[in-house]
Amino acid sequence: MSELPKSPAFRPLGRSDIAVSPIAWGMWRLADNGRSVAEATTLVHAALDAGINFLDTADIYGFNGTDGFGDAEALLGEVLAAEPELRDRMVLATKGGILPPLPYDQSADYLRKAIDDSLARLKVDMVDLWQIHRPDILAHPQETARVLDDAVASGKIRTIGVSNFTMAQIAALDHFLAEKLVTTQPEISPLRIDCFENGELDQAMMLSLTPMAWSPLGGGRLAAPETASDKAVAAALDTVAQAHGVSRTVAAYSWLMAHPAGIIPIIGSQQPGRIAEGAQALNVRWTRQEWYAVLVAARGVTLP
């Protein structure tokens, strides 16, 4: 049985000329447990040395409900200050628009400040991708677009993306942007398959958006499945994992990567070995029968 196409070593980020690895490393927990600059540097090297050049953070990462806002960006900034040459090896992405204790804020003044503050914490003049973390229902997309276009024009950000936006919200913002969106970042995993059937990935392909999948392992549920449905998905992944001599984690990443939209799973681990292991997903090939077996297990019913 023929295999699905292999993921390329690098792919363009949306319509841009930025080449990214087909898997990314996320820094949601980078600042946890008082991690030192040296420890954080080891993690950055683990990703880059494994061929993962796409690094994703956010200004809210590190916030514990009371303090820590910006801590993950600041820690990465210290890494880059200590080893400036690392910046040229990475495609650096961050996010903003969540403002504790408020929910979300995409007002023009706040967006401008959020972008400037992220650059200051990261100790860089520009980020390759800046994403609105969650949609602010009270913000008019035309006003938001104007701020983001200005940030591109001024050289503060190279490209624009969104996270957790609905299809209508994506379409509205993209309509007003001169610099069109290049990414969308929804939750996607073998345990969260909504976007495969609700049109999100179809829209991404239509607009040339690169989907970045957060929580690609189902928030850890794939590692320790408890429900009958989760166990069925794990078993379907294990069939391919065992055939290729890789872990279930790697099989899950590669399952997402096999989709024609070019889904980029974001590795959430803060362990060097687990980060490097993720790169093995590039070598796993799926047949249609194997791929659909995982989808059927996740749906819980046979395909029509």
Automatic annotation (TrEMBL):
Gene3D superfamilies: NADP-dependent oxidoreductase domain
Protein name: Aryl-alcohol dehydrogenase
PANTHER family on file: NADH-SPECIFIC METHYLGLYOXAL REDUCTASE-RELATED, OXIDOREDUCTASE YDHF
InterPro entries tied to this protein: AKR (IPR020471), AKR_Detox_Biosynth (IPR050523), Aldo/ket_reductase_CS (IPR018170), NAD(P)_OxRdtase_dom_sf (IPR036812), NADP_OxRdtase_dom (IPR023210)
Domain NADP-dependent oxidoreductase: 22-291
Organism: Blastomonas aquatica
